[in-house]
Batch of 2 targets.
Target 1
Amino acid sequence: MTLEEYLSSASYMNDHIKILLDEKAKLYQIATAINCDMSKERVQASASGDKLPNIIAKIIDLERQIDREIDAYIDRKRAIRELIKSVLPVSEIQWRVLVYRYMMGLCWDDVADKCNYSVSQIKRIHKAAIEEIRRQNPKKVSEIEKMNRNELE
């Protein structure tokens, strides 16, 4: 995997976190919509007929799984943010280009507009920023380049 692919995964993670949060909200909506009519008292010989506790348990398990995935994405985004931040002492414009491109997921034209540069200038600044990350973080970049793409998903 290239360093650029790794940095680009931050934008993917933003989208995936939003999807997971939406899924969690829907699960919560389902859980709170489940009601039970307690006006009729029933005696049941078998516990297998009562599905409500099973449904609630499954919802809780899914919510926990979603929370774990969100935590993992946030940790990964934090690592990406730290890599990007490593160029800040050298060049604020390089940092801004990387943040706009990878953390915010903007296209080259939008990055150029935000920074008041041409697209070709932005791409040169980007290239220099990537080289600066490589220079300052050789061990981390080496680890990233050994990763498979599916390790980000």
Target 2
Amino acid sequence: MNIIDTPIPEVKILEPRVFSDARGFFFESWNRKTLAAAGLDLDFVQDNHSRSTKNVLRGLHYQIQHAQGKLVRVVAGDVFDVAVDLRRSRPTFGQWVGVTLSSENKRMLWIPPGFAHGFVVRSDVAEFLYKTTDYWYAEHERTLLWNDPALAIAWGLAEAPILAEKDASGVLLKDAEVYP
């Protein structure tokens, strides 16, 4: 597995070694020993799977308690995936990393606890899988406003995204509950 650094050191792009032939392909999407040797010794407790249509934007979500680390990937389609650092004590606080994840490139993104996460679907449909290091707790979930001018995330949208009510009414970074 190739592990690629991003401008925020704790956020990593993972590129699996893909074995392809006339029958299709095979790759390991998760190998605890391999990733632990690379410094990502992770314990996942929950797997999630979402399906979304073009221009759906989900996020930017995080849990203020029971912060979740997420290993995310796309098994059908194409998304632009974003992680925003919400750790006030870090020099990267308020900065974001964005990467294209697709069924074609088979890349994964490791988003550690302390980050908000979201994505926008660029293909007609996308199926998104993610493993989490803690369980989901509705009472601790928070939403950062996806288009906060202070973040200036370059979503690459040609038209207004399709949003859930909670995503449309997210809070600005300046008003958000964040991590120490």
